[in-house]
Amino acid sequence: SSSNLDIKKEGNGKNSKNSSPKKSNNKLQTKKITRKRKNETSEISTPNPENKENINNKEEPSPKKAKIERKKKEPKQKTTKNKGPVDVERQCGVPLPNGGFCARSLTCKTHSMGAKRSVLGRSAPYDQLLAAYQRKNQAKIGAAAAAAQQAKDDLVHGAGVALDDEEETQQVLAGVRRNYAVPLERNVLIPVRMRTGYLRMREMFASSLLPRLQNNPLGKMYARAAVMNVENIGESPFFPVRSQHQKNNQQRQNMKQSQNMMQMQMQMQMQKQGQVQAHMQAQIQAQIQAQMQAQEKTQIPHQPQIPRNNNIDNLETGGRNPNKGLNISTLSSQQQQQQQQQQMLMMGQKLMNSETERLITDPVPGITATPHEDNLRYFDVSLTGPAGSPYENGVFKLELYLPDDYPMTAPKVRFLTRIYHPNIDRLGRICLDVLKNNWSPALQIRTILLSIQALLSSPNPDDPLANEVAQEWKGNHDKAITTAKEWTQLYAKDD
Q1: How many CA atoms lie within 13 A of 363 on its CB side?
Q2: Which residue ranges have biased composition labelled Polar residues (predicted)?
Q3: What is the CA radius of gyration of the chain?
């Protein structure tokens, strides 16, 4: 140590270049001292005599400071954290090459969807867990956004915000500007000449857009003050009207042509309808004449021809010639019968058309009847079994035919679907008094179909058409009901 002190003294008077090795020696000595203190050895190296006073004058550090200094000087030991198991309900969980598992969230971008879906141990599919996780995050984001928006609203409206005098005045002025009173509208007075010019211009534009004011489908166009007729307007200093009149003439011609075409089409349709009606009337008259001729052959005996007498031929009808008067009277009666039959046929046709239209537009609940395209007298009927009966939930097909002398005679109805019923036989014929003796022209197709539906709900084994079914119905009612239900399920299924 004494040699070190001598070197130090000698070095104080020399250049700075020669002082560098001495300083390094001092540093080495201080390092040795610190190492000895750390190891708590008894041997302590003596410092330089110049630094003795400084060392003795230093105060001992407090334990907290010493601990902090010790932590700073000591090197940090690297500790490996023991990672726990991966929560596959919240984390990715895909196996890694190092034998571990991915600990990122369910929205991991490193691994594919297929790899994340194939992870085992999840309580629900990956897609459901991901959707729940995203909903939760979205709810958090939404709540944060709502809170931020509420803070902005509070800041705008001044709720819970301490304002200075200047800010308060600005807020008040902004509110006054927002709620500034708008003055009411006032009608501007326009001179009469200028107003008429405006009205003419308006009517000119209207006439150019619409084909004609008088034939406008929306009605006549009225101005605010008066009705203007474009045809009677002459030359005006504001605008020329002749060009518009030319366009109106062209539009009128086009309208007339279109109207003529419509009339021609209507006439053609009426002619076609008239031809069809005339053809039908001719057929009806031919049938009536054939029937009348057959009746004449059977009723009127053959009379010998009477020699003609010119004097008798000149007599008036119904005069002294008895044979001639008799022939004319018989012809008049035949014509009356033909007219009556024609009237009855026309009435029956009208009635049939009205009933068909009503059946289509206002059908009976549980019953549908559609006429044939080839013959409107044939109807395809589908009838639903009434509730509470053995035919419930069954759909039965029927055939209905209106005869030529309908409504004077009852329509013909029969079942096409097999049914186990005492009043309906195997051929589908129906035993119903309305279709036989109790028929009236006042009845309609609707009443017939409703009567058949009521017959299904309440069979009448006392007036049977299928005797075996009626005996079963009376003798063993429960068995008959079960058979009817089985037949309904077997044959009357709703396709």
Answers
A1: 11
A2: 300-314, 324-333
A3: 58
Distance CA 34, CA 45 (A): 10
In this prediction, residue 277 carries a pLDDT of 64
Intervals of CATH 3.10.110.10 along the chain: 348-491
In this predicted model, what pLDDT tens digit does every residue of 107-164 receive, in sequence order? 898 898 889 888 888 888 999 999 998 888 888 888 888 888 877 776 665 555 555 7
Q: How many residues does the chain have?
A: 495
Query: pLDDT digit string (tens) for 157-203?
Result: 555 555 577 878 887 888 777 777 766 767 777 788 888 888 888 88
CB of 341 within 8 A of CB of 290?
no
Residue 355: pLDDT over 90:
no
Do residues 370 and 360 make contact, with C-beta atoms less than 8 angstroms apart?
yes
User: Cβ neighbours of residue 22 under 8 Å, at least 6 residues apart?
Assistant: 7, 8, 11
Non-local (6+) Cβ contacts of 218 within 8 A are none
Question: Which of 182, 194, 264, 255 lies closest to 225 in space, CA to CA?
Answer: 194
Q: Provide the whole-model pTM.
A: 0.35
Q: Span 264-280, mean pLDDT?
A: 69
DSSP 287-341: HHHHHHHHHHHHHSPP-PPPPP-HHHHTSPTTSS-HHHHHHHHHHHHHHHHHHHH
* Residues contacting residue 447 through CB under 8 Å, at least 6 positions apart: 434
Residue type, 159: A
- Could you tell me the end-to-end alpha-carbon distance of the chain, in angstroms, rounded to an integer? 120
Put residue 40 in one of left, alpha, beta given phi > 0 → left and psi -120 to 50 → alpha.
Answer: left
Beta-bridge partners for 368: 382
Q: How far apart are CA 492 and CA 495, in angstroms?
A: 9
Pick the CATH number of 348-491 from 1.10.340.30, 3.30.70.20, 3.30.300.20, 3.10.110.10: 3.10.110.10
Which of 458-461's residues contact partners 24+ apart within 8 Å by CB, and which partners? 459/421, 459/422, 459/423, 460/422, 460/423, 461/422
For residue 241, the 8-state DSSP code is: -
Distance between CA 284 and CA 349 in Å, rounded? Answer: 12
Count of H-run helices and E-run strands, the chain: 14, 4
Cα–Cα dist 322/313, whole Å: 11
Rounded Cα–Cα distance for residues 21 and 4 (Å): 11
Q: Which helix or strand (DSSP H or E) is residue 397 part of?
A: strand 395-401
Catalytically annotated residues: 431
Pick the more confident residue, 347 or 468: 468
